[in-house]
Amino acid sequence: MWESFFGFKKTPFSDSPDAKQLFASQAWNQVKTRLEFLAQHRGTGLITGEVGAGKSTAARVFTATLNASLYKILYVHFSSGSALDLLRQIASELDLEPARFRGDLVRQIADAVVRLNQAKKQHPILICDEAHLLPHPALEQLPLLLNFDMDSSRYLTLLLVGRPLLRRTLSLQMHEALRQRIGVQYHLEGITRDELDAYLAQQLKAAGVSQPLFDETARQGMYQATKGIPRKVNKLAMTALRLAAASKSQTVNEAILLDAAAEAML
């Protein structure tokens, strides 16, 4: 196994990082600040980024820090379907038996949200992941869940997470009502070139190896191939280490990195 060749105590560069070992990049700190504001002041937030930028990880790690007695996380990972399907998923997250018709579902969800706030003193945070896949009717449904007649209280916090396409979709006139409610937003990009070196060192150390395993040419090539997108960095680093171990090389050089990039299809 390549892990034993380098002396790793555990496999590095996991796509599901330990929250305690999350790399504090500039981008992550910006996202964290906005999510903290969103939780404190409630309302609607928007986080976008390319595939593998860490959008879902950021939402998951942040919500894990919230007091479960004060917040209820409603997580919807939308892949396809209709506005009715979305409402049914939300109802299920609220432990409800979904009503049959859309109007009844909206009232059912609204009543449950108010009860959580008033009876249990628990504020729900609805996270719509992969929200760029939501059809227009589903997006148009969301403002109705945020509108509680003439009551100025904010009973529900909404966080939309998706690819850049989501921003273009929300710019359409039909989504003006939802767009106006967005109080915080951030576009998550990859780590910088300088941060890449620190990220590699942190991941190696967390896995039990303190010496650098990627030389300067490999690190430069890695940044060019991945643009600092964490998921791509993880995939390329792991592939490069495996190829290095197969060739009995204690370090990853440019030649190994190039072979790894080709194998990882980057």
Can you tell me about this structure?
There is one protein chain. With 266 residues, this protein is of the alpha/beta class. It has 2 domains: 26-188, P-loop containing nucleotide triphosphate hydrolases (Rossmann fold, 3-Layer(aba) Sandwich); 191-263, Helicase, Ruva Protein, domain 3. The chain has 12 helices and 5 strands. The chain has helices at residues 2-6, 26-41, 55-64, 83-93, 102-118, 136-146, 165-170, 176-181, 193-206, 216-226, 230-246, 254-263; strands spanning 44-49, 71-77, 123-129, 157-162, 182-188. Helix 4 (83-93) packs parallel to helix 5 and helix 4 packs across helix 6 (136-146). 33% of the residues are buried. The mean pLDDT is 92.
Q: Key terms for this structure?
A:
266 residues; alpha/beta; Rossmann fold; Helicase, Ruva Protein, domain 3; five-stranded parallel sheet
List the helices and strands and how they pair.
Blueprint (H helix, E strand, L loop, with lengths): L1 H5 L19 H16 L2 E6 L5 H10 L6 E7 L5 H11 L8 H17 L4 E7 L6 H11 L10 E6 L2 H6 L5 H6 E7 L4 H14 L9 H11 L3 H17 L7 H10 L3
How many helices?
Answer: 12
Give the ordered list of helices and strands. Answer: HHEHEHHEHEHHEHHHH
CATH architecture descriptor name of the largest domain: 3-Layer(aba) Sandwich
What is the domain tally?
Answer: 2
Strand order of the largest sheet: 2-3-4-1-5
Shape: elongated
Helix content: 40-55%
The CATH superfamily of the largest domain is known as: P-loop containing nucleotide triphosphate hydrolases
Low-confidence stretches: none
CATH class term of the largest domain: Alpha Beta
| Class based on secondary structure composition and strand pairing | alpha/beta
Rg is 22 Å
The N- to C-terminal Cα distance equals 24 Å
Mean pLDDT: 92
Number of strands: 5
CATH topology of the largest domain: Rossmann fold
| Sheet of most strands | 5 strands, parallel
Strand content: 5-15%
